[in-house]
């Protein structure tokens, strides 16, 4: 399942972290405007996407490639991975043409994970309580193959501009969606 904004320009594919869903990207996607074709995806077992018996990084990567192909996006996408989903974005970039991989919210969120997130955006950062799904993805996204992939790819962090206020934590893109969208527009 996915949502799409815009039809033209550089594709920006937005991947949520474990136990979240595509709605976490709605504020950023709305601020991207017409400069790109934004796609927010529900990973298998999340949001409105069906669960699986097993979750393998290679299969998730293949499924993402098939979705991007079906959407006929025509240009190499910018892949934005929230937290653990960055590994899926990196795995995709290892196999397919990719303009950039952007990592969001990978810093350890000490204390309040929602610190700095305005009240109106907190609704987009509600995790699902599903220990079985977490366990199913854990090996896929933390195993040796995933660690080897993540060690070889450089990341671009959103929300780290020198003039911007510090946005540590799990949801820097929700602290200021307009600033996150502006950073992504620069990559387009």
Layout of strands and helices, then pairs:
Elements: E1 2-5, E2 10-15, H1 26-32, E3 36-41, H2 57-70, E4 78-82, H3 86-95, E5 100-104, H4 131-142, H5 144-152, E6 156-157, H6 172-175, H7 177-187
Brief synopsis:
The chain is α/β, with parallel strands linked by helices. The chain has helices at 26-32, 57-70, 86-95, 131-142, 144-152, 172-175, 177-187, and strands at 2-5, 10-15, 36-41, 78-82, 100-104, 156-157.
Can you describe this structure?
The protein is of the alpha/beta class and 188 residues long. 36% of the residues lie in helices and 15% in strands. The chain is built from 7 helices and 6 strands, in the order ββαβαβαβααβαα. It has a 6-stranded mixed β-sheet with strand order 1-3-2-4-5-6, sandwiched between helices. The protein is globular, with a radius of gyration of 15 Å. Mean pLDDT is 84; it is low at 153-167.
Largest sheet: 6 strands, mixed
Strand content: 5-15%
Which structural class do you get from the secondary structure elements? alpha/beta
Query: N- to C-terminal separation?
Result: 24 Å
Helix content, binned percent: 25-40%
- Identify low-pLDDT runs: 153-167
Any idea what the shape is? globular
How are the strands of the biggest sheet laid out side by side?
1-3-2-4-5-6
Task: Report the radius of gyration as a whole number of Å.
Answer: 15 Å
Mean pLDDT: 84
Order of helices and strands: EEHEHEHEHHEHH
The total strand number stands at 6
Number of helices, where a helix is a run of at least 4 consecutive DSSP H or I residues? 7
